[in-house]
Amino acid sequence: MLLLLLLYCCRIRAGEYIIKQGDMGDEFYIIDNGEVEFYRKEDNDSQEISIGRFFQNQWFGEGSLTKPAPRRASAVAQTDSVVCFSLSGAEYRALFGEQIKEQMAQTLAIRKAADEPGNASEIRANDLSGIRMLGQGSYGKVTLVRHKSTGKTYALKQITREKVERLEQEVHVRILFLLAVCFRKKNLVC
User: Fold this and answer.
1) Which domains does the chain have, with CATH numbers?
2) pLDDT score of 189
3) What is the pTM of this model?
């Protein structure tokens, strides 16, 4: 009950920043409704690039909970009426013990590691949760999935061996696989 009294409810319109990269952070956010896209500017680049999207019941800003630190990325509301609950770092540190601080630090380490180039190859099927089907073709479907720890989204093409063999598409599938391997650095996952 005490935690509910400490949470602050904020409503954000589509396109508005919730946090900005480089600003000092001392708040943690839980998404109650809507979608939030994360962007990052590299050191010498003026353009922000998308690094992931979070949805209802996901959280962000945990890096500032253990100690105030500059934000690693910007968070922008993507849907109308994004609702987040926030908790200040000071209240978090006073309320929770060391164990949850360590768990949050581990989650932050996973998210930081996912930002490194080439780490998409470490994703396993059980690390992903389905969001919605994007389309269906003659021998498979494409599903929008989210990595459970990082919140990054991917289009996952699912094909069944039976249909591939029945339609004699083995060569086509091998070519798709080779293309995915070649473009793995572009966040394609095989």
Assistant:
1) 2-115 (2.60.120.10), 122-186 (3.30.200.20)
2) 46
3) 0.58
